[in-house]
């Protein structure tokens, strides 16, 4: 199914440029790309592992599709998973989860589910062949695979591989085309904004992988008249919601409205549920009730109002403060209104001497030197005392992981380790 769809695309766009590698200057038309795929010799592998950041990744995907192998994309330094048992019938693709809340596991997809995700994204976002995608995010990650690889191979949307996320590489890549679509993560948008590397020929700007700060979205729009569209998705089901508006959001919890052919609802536990043809088949090798029968039960607390999704935090991130639960996003939202707070992250740390009870901790990036007492007093004007962090750490930046996410779990470990070292030094 996938390879036949690709052959139709290659025939329809045979002489048009499909892929360009900006690091080498090489480029391939759709016809040339099809001939590269046809030259690949058959092998007996049941599973193929496309990897890399360049054209070899695209060649690997086409090779897997041609020979009917299950494609399992990997990061350049990622070890191939072991397959202790036979894969379920009808599976064409395996994704690895981002492992932000637990160990990484595999998600199995049929060809029809991959097609549905690509169709939904292209139609909802209005991806166009005359606005080629600029490939900067990982091709192996669900976001890059769905927004860059599948539109190229299944819809004929050209792909330009920038080779680097550095501001100068962005300037060079965008200068070579009249118009581009650029999908990235908030940390990259911030770096490009600060380096003044965002060019006028970026016609469609997309941000996913982590919440897009409203202040950054508004700043980019004010300077460049470029709207960054917030995109919310998950490895288990592809695209979920997209902010279609032409002007910046004013509410950071707004994730947009459902993609075409995606149905959303809120379950009894307050978490968002996703239904549609793009929802994955199952977790593998261990199944889970959160993903089955065309339904993905997320761990994201949400509200639906007039078709708009508002994300209220992750159920797993809620902090248990003496039996009362609070969402860290609610505290961050207030803290970010402080004029001298550049960025912040709130999470729970174990309370000393009390099992299953946490204290609220905050890491803060300040525009100037700040004090924990000053921030406490600021928050007390808006929040009840029990929701104000008791532990504070001031940092230069909140570095994201390789997926573009700022992990509460990882920063909580950093915070606890720093506290342990400080405690040991004082004894």
List keywords for this structure.
14-stranded mixed beta sheet; 427 residues; 3-stranded antiparallel beta sheet; Rossmann fold; 30% helix; 24 strands; 2 domains; alpha/beta; GMP Synthetase, Chain A, domain 3; single chain; disordered C terminus
Structure notes:
This protein is an alpha/beta fold. The protein has two domains: 2-314, ANL, N-terminal domain (Rossmann fold), CATH 3.40.50; 318-426, GMP Synthetase, Chain A, domain 3 (2-Layer Sandwich). 30% of the residues lie in helices and 27% in strands. The chain has eleven helices and 24 strands. The strands form five sheets. Strands 1, 2, 7, 8, 9, 10, 11, 12, 13, 14, 15, 17, 18 and 19 form a 14-stranded mixed β-sheet that branches. Helix 1 crosses helix 2 (30-39), helix 2 crosses helix 3 and helix 4 crosses helix 5 (142-155). The longest helix has 19 residues, at 408-426. Mean pLDDT is 90; it is low at 99-103 and 420-427.
